[in-house]
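Hello again, I could really use a second opinion on something today. I've been staring at a protein lately and its backbone has me curious. Please have a think about how the structure follows from the sequence. I owe you a coffee for this, so here goes:
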Amino acid sequence: MQELPHHYHVSAKAAPEGTVTLEGNDVPALETTPPKEFGGPGGHWSPEALLVGAVTDCFILTFRAIARASRLDWTALECSTEGKLERIDRVTRFTELTVTAHLNVPADTDADKAKQLLEKAEANCLVSNSLNSTIHLHATVDQAG
């Protein structure tokens, strides 16, 4: 890992109607629209879905790093996140994010250790730690065999 601080830059282009195009260094452009819940057409990523997706992605990438450092063998991780958007004190924001993680490990793996590492990943996810939302983790571990 490079020394901190890290800097990330994304730019956007838009016309009065249609998609917004996000561009970043060395990544494909991404088209977004408002979600259907805000009167958008759907069919594209929205800022809301990107935020929830960033939590999901960061959780998995954080778990990978922690599992590697802890020498935990695992075979698959499925993860989904649900974000709850509410209006509180005239401010619309995500108030809760619920991460559901299902980890598959080999039969000889310590399932308690695996679950602890999932919890550690949730506690160390830099994206969710950057948000003013309550984070819930529902984690299960299945052993093959």
